[in-house]
Amino acid sequence: MRRWLWLALGFLFVALGFIGALLPLMPTTIFLILAAACFARSSPRLEAWLLDHPRFGPTLRAWHEDGAIGPRAKFMACGGMAVGYALFWWGVRPSLAADLIVALGLAGCAVFILTRPRPRRI
Prior knowledge:
Elements: H1 2-22, H2 29-42, H3 44-51, H4 57-66, H5 71-92, H6 96-114
């Protein structure tokens, strides 16, 4: 039963990842990383399919092997967070407390992303 749950989550994350590849500001890679992790627990064949995918495979393998994020991906992720924060601030006009909570959360995510190593190869 547990295997089917991991498999279903893997397909959900793949769907969200492919939607993110088409929509601006929605992440792609994190959903595919989660999908690969779910498939590792449920279907080695589907995990291999993701890791060998011509478009997403190199990025997923770099994360899987070294926890690495490429410079372009770092730029896109941090840029997306900055645009998302600007839209949040402009659209919601949050209180100072909410503004600081969101800003600190996004800054923490950006620091994590920026401190990951560069891939050895992509």
